[in-house]
Amino acid sequence: MPMPPEVGAAVGAPPETESMRTVAVQADWPALFWALVVMVCLTPLPLGSIYPWSWGLLASGVGVLLALWSIRVARGLQDVSVGVASVWFLVVPFFSVAAWVAIQSSSITPASWHHPLWSSAAESLGEDVVGSISLNPYLSLSHLARLLSYGGVFWLSLQLCRKSQRARQVLFAICVAAFVCAVLGLVAYAFGFGAILWIDMPIDERVLTGTFGSADSFAAYAALGLLCVTAVVQITFSQRLQAIFGAMTREAFTAGDDGRVRRAKPSLFSTEVWRRLAASVSWTDRWLILAWVCVLAAAVATHSRVGLGSLAIALLALVLVFALSRSLRRGGASTVAAAIVLFLGAAFLAGGGRLEKIFLDIDADAERQRVYDLTVSAIQDAPVLGTGYGTFEEVFRFYRTSDVDGYYAMAHSTYLESVLELGLPATLMLFAVFAGLFYLTIYGIRSRGRDGIYPCVGFAATILIALHAAADFSLQVPAVAATYAMIMGAACAQCWSTRHGTEV
């Protein structure tokens, strides 16, 4: 990929196109942005939008917003803030996966590609049955609609969040949504309520499930919310400190030995700095701190080992990467990477093997491990073509053994489930999308200055989702996937400097 000279050879820049060099002159439509934000922030309420009617509303709404945005672009009322050529390494693998799911659901593929159960059904019925690669084409197409809706959320966020103010509003809105969900969950957890708002919830007295009905899924959502709250707190107080430093610098003058007047530089450890900071605290600041505490308390109350473990690592990554971002911009990528590795290693050793227990011995229940083993066996029967996107539940019933008692609609491992459903080649293309997002956030961390916190949030969110997906199905929950997509859209929109894009 082309690299501008100022970036350096360690991490290349995404290709710069004419759309990225041209400053947008057309004002966008605020209603479009806020409709997207409200739509995504409401997804956690109906059990994480896992029901067809709830995720269907999300998919339909995103489709309408994409159509409105496209019409405005076609009529010259709105510019394309980030061109396709600038994010081709995301667009190509994403639509390759989407195209493959469509092929899986089609009956025009060679009969030798079709799942063997189609021929078994034909023999049982004594008549020809039109088959496909997917064991259930309807399920595959419905999951394709969900996948495309997540891509739509990302694309709209990418286009509408080139201004840093918009990116901050996205993070703040997710803070509010996570706070509301955390409070509702904590109240239901404390008093044993069987319903949240008007929705009957499968309340487990032992753990907090929030508005999701699943402790692990809520832990993933709360973790994303906590990353956003942490970022907003950092933005708020760093701006406040900059204003205080500026005021104190203007107020204080000292005369040197040469008679020249010099400005005194205030220290972060000065009592006066902290006095002024405390005096400037507003009700919004207090609310942010309260939100941080409530969301963290709700996440802890889930008792989700993989959720808390991935949250701890993601928060650590967010703090470290942001703190060391200046070193990254100076080209000290190897030094920063080594520091992060050493810190994580020290945390691992200090934790007495807790991280190993979380991520290597994912569940003490032998049944969960048995499910993983059976999933691997199913993968071996269709390693290239897969069984059809979204068909895990359909396929697993044919491999299930008597020693598996629980109900498993999902594999509790996004990696294994993706390989089973999509096949290995398509899964690698899907993972290439996440690798591209990770790459883009690293570039943003290295290229941005004051707004570098946004790529840092995207960097940490990707680590969080990657770790959590190893032992759960967080990305299969529409509320988690849509929220992650909006965060990444806003974060990636801030990965280019003003020289390469619209005004921020």
Itemize the secondary structure elements and their pairings.
Blueprint: H1 18-21, H2 30-41, H3 52-74, H4 88-105, H5 116-125, H6 137-160, H7 164-191, E1 195-196, E2 199-200, H8 215-251, E3 253-255, E4 261-263, H9 271-279, H10 283-301, H11 305-323, H12 325-329, H13 333-350, H14 354-359, H15 366-381, H16 392-399, H17 414-422, H18 424-447, H19 453-468, H20 478-493
Antiparallel strand pairs: 1-2, 3-4
Helix pairs in contact: 2-3, 3-6, 4-6, 4-18, 6-20, 7-8, 7-10, 7-20, 8-10, 8-11, 8-19, 8-20, 11-19, 15-17, 17-18, 18-19, 19-20
Structure description:
This protein is an all-alpha fold and 504 residues long. It has one domain. 64% of the residues lie in helices and 2% in strands. It is built from 20 helices and four strands. The strands form two sheets. A two-stranded antiparallel sheet has the order 1-2. A two-stranded antiparallel sheet has the order 3-4. β1 and β2 form a beta hairpin. The two termini are 24 Å apart. The N terminus is likely disordered.
Please give a handful of descriptors for the protein shown.
single chain; mainly alpha; two-stranded antiparallel ribbon; two-stranded antiparallel sheet; 20 helices; 64% helix
